[in-house]
């Protein structure tokens, strides 16, 4: 699914996407959660992993 479509999804909805990870953050206070930016030719989207 393109990033442009994923941007329209509501929070907490499960989805599949494909692209390149352009940024990764793993804050010490996140309790094992990682935040990434996924980018494709239609744009980028922030993802919680």
How would you sum up this structure in a few lines?
The protein has one helix at 3-6, and strands spanning 20-25, 35-40, 43-48.
Integer average pLDDT: 89
How many individual helices? 1
Number of strands: 3
Low-confidence stretches: none
What count of structural domains?
1
Measured by DSSP, the beta-strand proportion falls in 35-45%
**Spatial order of the strands forming the largest sheet:** 1-2-3
C-alpha Rg (nearest Å)? 11 Å
The largest pleated sheet is described as:
3 strands, antiparallel
Helix-and-strand structural type: mainly beta
Helix content: under 10%
Question: Your description of this structure?
Answer:
By secondary structure, the protein is mainly beta. The protein has one domain (3-48). The chain contains one helix and three strands; from the N terminus they run αβββ. It has a three-stranded antiparallel beta sheet.
Which helices and strands, and how do they pair?
Elements: H1 3-6, E1 20-25, E2 35-40, E3 43-48
Antiparallel strand pairs: 1-2, 2-3
Which short descriptors sum up this protein?
49 residues; mainly beta; 3-stranded antiparallel β-sheet; 3 strands; 37% strand
